[in-house]
Amino acid sequence: MSLTKIVVTVGPAVEKTNTLVSLIKAGASIFRFNLKHNKHHWHSACIKKVEQASKITGKPVAILLDLQGTEIRVGKLPKQGIEVKRGDRVVFTKENSLHSLDNVIPVSDSFFQGKLKKGKKFFIDDGKFEFKVLKKQKDSFLTRVIKGGNIQSQKGVNVPGMEISSPSLLVKDLKDLSLAVKHEIDYLALSFVNNKKDIELLKRQVKKFSLSTKILAKIETRQGLDNFEEILDSCNGIIIARGDLGVEIPLEQVPYYQKKIIKRCVEMGKPVITATQMLESMCYSPFPTRAEVSDIANAVLDYTDAVMFAKETTIGKYPVKTVSVTEKICRFWEEKRPPVKDFNFELTHQTASVCYSAYELWRSPFCQKENVKAFVVITKTGMTAQMLSRLRPNLPILSLTDDKKVKDQLCLLYGVVPLLLKKSSDLYKKKNILDVEKILYCIKKSGYVKKGEKVIIVYAEDWGTLGKTSVVRIQEIP
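The structure corresponding to this sequence follows.
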């Protein structure tokens, strides 16, 4: 399998257990649930199916819940949608307003909390539809259609440059956290993060619910870009939401910021997901366009941890093939790309320094000649795996932990293959060569390496002491 991870958004196209099994076998390891769509009972049932598919395949997966945050969305429309044409007059009103006219579109209340003035343009569905404000009324806006089509419920609304005064967490988001508690979710993503205060607010709520979930910030606004460093410091990882970002800023700037964001995340050792329109043509076609293949290749060359699919797997006709095609593209370009260079890897603690030494050992002529097959990491919190993953070695990082939550969360990190160690009374005693051999036997049973092959093992002699990774050794599989 590719070292770059693949995130699949769960929708009607993949909700059956056998399809989820096929997706995991094809290379998917993170399953995203977009809470802007469907009800809790549907998400809950599908999460259970994902967990069942994981057991069937014997491969770990991570569950990601995507909260709406302050994202502005179209409200409930007729099932057939609303057709608008260039030049039409359309009224946008609050979701709870009563309306029965064909040219009235309900939107989130936060749409009315920004300073939207006459002459301002805004967009729906990642820029597919465009409108211009003609007049502001009490609880509505009269607009003219610039770019029309058939608008469906729950499509995103973008107003470039508009700051929203409402809290980053909606009442709905707080209710959605109950789903995270029920299923002990691995990751929470927050949409439209503008500053670290948005993340801190979510952290406080996560703490109230006693969740051990990690928080991912979605970067999709100009404010999010301007405050990126403080956001990165506050969260556990980043999603580059290129659809909304490509409306908020000029399109030609999106690749620049993609590369910049990925580099900073890699330097900090925090996972980064590149998302939106990666293989969108495969919603309807069994083959991607050449440009889409190049897009995924460039994300790999940028050293992203993962690529993410939305429509391709929620409503697309070829979800499994989308994943298998992506896995092949990623695997090819991982082998072709050069080692990371011009990255500022700060070695501010012992674990980071030891992992860097292990990486340099792997790059040595001796290890290259011996064809070392993998890194083997023993980790309690996932930090050792994280510090090694950020260096982007071109071989798997077999990461053993006794914590199931850590094991599942490691699924998102580039190159990491999480394995669960059984808890035992002597798990935290000082490690000697016999203990190491037992671990190597465990690795061999997993099927990732064979007898006689060499690995680089990284661990702490006193494993129970956090942040004290101290041993790097070349070991032959017994």
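The chain is about 35% helix and 25% strand.
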